[in-house]
Every structure is written in structure tokens, then in C-alpha cells.
Amino acid sequence: MSSENSTLVKLNNAGFKQNDKWLVEGVSLTVEKGKIVTLIGPNGSGKSTTAKIALGIYKNIEGSVEKYTNKVGYVPQKISIDWTLPLRVYDFMLLTENIKDEAIDEALTLTGVIHLKNKNLGNLSGGEFQRVLIARAISKKPELLVLDEPVQGVDYTGEIALYELIKRISDTLNCGILLISHDLHTVMTATDHVVCLNGHVCCSGSPMDVAKNNEYKTLFGEQASQILSVYEHKHDHVHSDEGEIKKN
Amino acid sequence: MFDDFFIRALFAGIGIAFVTGPLGCFVVWRRLSYFGDTLAHSALLGVTMAYTLDLNIAISVFLISSVIALILIQLQKKTNLPGDALLGLLAHSSLAVGLVVIGFLTFIRFDIMGLLFGDILAVTTDDLIIIWTGGALILLFLKLIWKPLFASTVNYELAEAEGLNPDRAKAIFTILMAAVIAISIKMVGLLLITGMLIIPAAMARNISDSPQKMVIFSIIGGLLSVVLGLYSSLEFNTSSGPSIIAASLVLFILSLFKIKQSIKLKN
């Protein structure tokens, strides 16, 4: 695939300063069609800021962002909705685009919350709301999906299923995904490219390259080396959704 | 048909209710009631300008309110004062300046009560034309910016990230607010315009479970308030503005019973 027409968004040495303090600086990354790019890093390392730079939410940035698509689905990390609005899940699904009813039902079914379609958004639990957020983002059939901690508050089995869903979406829609996750295990198995942030890019590359990097090990300590051993153990093959083994 | 002052007032009120219904919902959702108040207070300055320069009141009020809105946006950017302090500053200083200017204009007789609380006798056929054409334009623009405005009301970053340009929608909405105040000032009076925006919308919130329903109930509530208010104004010889707002308060109180019922059903 030539990089020119498969590139969805490209950050060139991008950074953002708020009140004279750099939230993040010097980030270069590219999200291409059908690829998953994951941002990892400790709290306050600029993961969400980087995602917002890529989305064009921040205006006065250093460096540059080249965005080649307007079909964007976004699952923000924090979302505060004012309950003075009477808003059902159904209304929320139509928030930024008029989507056909079948597409809404399909997305809500995929994330397992179709039964909540006519419920008031304010009455959902944290995990249910998170599933609705993901459903809304994928129902638009976006070219670029930006997922900021998409499975927070979802129970463990649900979490695995949702990550599988995200992987499947990237394959079927051939969309590019910018994922922020604190779950190193998921990151290391389902990602094409990892960017490890700590106010700047401390290392990036394939999951394997990053896992071997010393800076990465210092940032994540014990957990990181465990992941590495898990990863090294099975790095000659991957598991498909059905569990069958595919050689790399 | 429009020879009768009461019929004129009725049609003016109906036209206003169609516009304040949907705009009022956004005022409630976006917590802009004090912003509405500020624009309404500044309208007095617009009225005095209309008299001194012999302009149409609605146009003059619209211009002054838009300028005040722009000043507010600039002050928000340039100062560290909280939003409500800035709103209070602009509301009371523009009201004060307006009253001082009236004091100087001794050659014109002002009906201050009419300005503050509305006067149905003052509605002319020209006002009707302004209300209905202005109102239609306001609704048309609101329809055009509905999607980005509503999406950014729910969540600004989602709207911005998914390419809806919420800043432009917000700027247009501010102008629409100035316009709705301009067309309703004669009828409702500048102290009570915000009530016309908020109370029917608040009533609608109590009985709605979706944004569309809230807008529709808000319009219906506004229409009922206008009709009930104007008839009682005629009957008891009270000011039109307070009568309309009092009628909308009655509707709001009635809507509270609906909430109680739905809470009981849940238990």
C-alpha cells in the first residue's frame, strides 16, 4: 500500500502548550487505513492531548497535523453530559450525523447494548455508557477511529470482547485506529504500531521493538517485562478471532 | 382584521412563541439564562438609540444587543473575571446607561413601564411584519445550525472532533439570541423576555424524554401562555408581559404534577 493515499492522519513534530506548560511535544506519528496505532504512557504523559491534536480539537499547536479524512469517530476519555438535556441513547446515536436506523441497531447490537436504545442516557451505568459511546463512534462507519481508553468501566469479559470487536472493525471497515490504552497486554497483542509517551515520544515501533526498549522498561517496570515474556513466548504466531493459530 | 389592537397583539405573541420555544430550549440546555438577561437589559440602550436616531426599535435593539454580545466575548478572552461577573457588569451598566440617556432625552416622553414590562397597545402592523419575517429567519438559521449547535451542547469536543464546526454555530446562535430579544421587546418588555425563553422550556423539560419533544412542548407552552396571558391582560387590565409570564408559570406548576407521577411509577 502506498503511504500517500492510505494515510489518514499524520502528526509532524506536534506539540501543545497550555499556560506555558508543555502537555506534550515533538510527537510524530502516522495512522494509516486498516492499521492500529496505540499510545501508551503513564498518567499525564500526554496521551489524550496527542489524540486531541490528531483530531484537530486543539488549534494553536506546535508542528503540524495533516488530516486526510473527515469521517471520524471519537470516543473521548472523559465525557461530561449535562442532564438538563432529555437525551435517549437513540438521540445520542444521531448526535453528529444522521445515521440509518439499521446502522444504529447494528452498532448497538455489536457492543451488546441494543436493549438500552430507548433508555435515557443519564440512567446508564458507566460500563453501559462506554458501550454506547463505542457504538456511536463505529455506527458512522468512520475512516478514522480515535479511542481514548474505550473500555474503562467495562467488566473484564466485556473488555476482551470489546477489544476483539475493535480489531474486527479495523479489519472489516479498513479504518485506521488511534487507540489509547493502559492495558499493556492488549496493546502488545493487537497493535501494529506502539508509541510510548512521557511528555514526548520516548520510544516507538512495533510492539516487539517497544517491549525491548529500555526506556519503556523503566516507565512500566515489572508489568512491562512480564508482557515481554508473554509476547516473546508467542511472537512467532498470532491468534485469530476463532482462536486458530496463524503464522506471522 | 389587524385593525383591532388585541388581534395584533395576539398574532405578535403567537409569532414570538414559535421562536422563543426552540431558542428557549437551548438557553436552558446551554445555561444561558443570565446571558439572555444581559442582552435584554442592554435592549434599553437600543430603544433610546431608536428614539434619538429615529430608527426602528427592533433593528436598533438587535444592533445594540449584538454589540453587547461581542463585547462580552472579548471581555471573556481578555480578563480573568468569571462569566457571571462579566454578565452582571454588562447587564447593569447597559441598563444604567440606558436610563441615564433617557433622563437626558427630556423632549421625548418615554413609557418606562411599557418598555420594562411590555405594552400590547404599542404593537403596530409594522411590528407584526417584523416579528413574523424576523421570526421566520431566526427559525431558518436555527434549523441550519441545529446539528452542530445541539452536538456541541451535548459535548463540545465530540462535535469539534467529528468536524461540525461548533464555534461558528455558537456565534450564529448568539446573533439569534439578540434577534429574538429585538422582536419580542415591545410585547413582553425587557425585564421579562428571559422568562418567555426559560419558563416554557423548563415546563417542557418536565414532561419530555427527548430533545425534539422538549422543543415541541416548549412551543405549545409558549403559545398557551401568550393566549392565556393576553386574554387575562385584557380582562383584568394588567401589563401584557407579566400576564404572559404568569400564565407560563401556571403551566410550569401544572407540569410538576407530571414529574411526580413518573417518579411514583418508577418506585
Description:
The complex is a heterodimer of chains A (248) and B (267). Chain A has 248 residues and is an alpha/beta fold. Chain A has nine helices and eleven strands. Chain A has helices at 3-6, 47-55, 89-93, 101-110, 126-139, 156-172, 184-190, 207-212, 214-233; strands at 7-18, 21-32, 36-40, 62-67, 72-75, 144-148, 176-180, 193-197, 201-205, 237-239, 245-247. In chain A, strand 8 and strand 9 (201-205) form a beta hairpin. In chain A, helix 4 (101-110) packs across helix 5 (126-139) and helix 7 packs across helix 9. Residues 229-237 of chain A have low confidence and may be disordered. With 267 residues, chain B is mainly α. Chain B has one domain (5-266): ABC transporter involved in vitamin B12 uptake, BtuC (Orthogonal Bundle). Chain B is globular and about 55 Å long. Chain B starts with a helix and ends with a helix. At the A-B interface, strand 5 and helix 3 of A face helix 6, helix 7 and helix 10 of B.
User: What's the rounded overall pLDDT mean of chain B?
Assistant: 90
How many helices of chain B? The count is: 11
Distance between the termini of chain B: 53 Å
Largest interface: A-B, 27 and 25 residues
The helix/strand class of chain A is: alpha/beta
The share of residues in extended strands of chain B comes to under 5%
Task: Give the C-alpha Rg of chain A.
Answer: 18 Å
| CATH structural class of chain B | Mainly Alpha
Biggest pleated sheet of chain B: none
Order of helices and strands of chain A: HEEEHEEHHHEHEHEEHHEE
CATH-derived topology of chain B? ABC transporter involved in vitamin B12 uptake, BtuC
Oligomer: heterodimer
Gross morphology of chain A is: globular
